[in-house]
Predict the 3D structure of the following.
Amino acid sequence: MESLKIPAEINRLGHALEFIRECSRPHGFSKDLIIRIEVVVEEVFVNICLYAYGPERGEVHINCNSETSRDGMRIEIVDHGKPFNPFEEALPADRTLDISKRHIGGLGILMVRQMTDEVSYLRSTDGNHLTLTFYNN
């Protein structure tokens, strides 16, 4: 398992994405799949930076594991911020409304669900755990 622990600050996004690229290399993922993984991780990382800790500072832990049952990679993103299950608490985006009438939010979670092969959330005593799995299809 490869791990990265960095401050939950937007200016650290580049470090997170470089770590993801490095973790992806041994899997032989296509460039398109790596970009898809980066987009998902960026969405999650930015949301943690903006909302998990409020005005306080916190950290983000990113762990990458090989998914051995299928050719893939599992990424666990952990923060110690306020409890938040994005799949239950985020308002779903109403894509039927005119864009000027839509509430802000919800599209990122939809995108994460659609671009990830498997996704799960767990709140434990040490924080929010979001697990993203990508397979080399």
Summary: The chain has a mean pLDDT of 87. Strands lie at 2-7, 59-67, 72-79, 118-124, 127-135. The chain has one domain: 2-135. Residues 31-52 form the longest helix (22 residues).
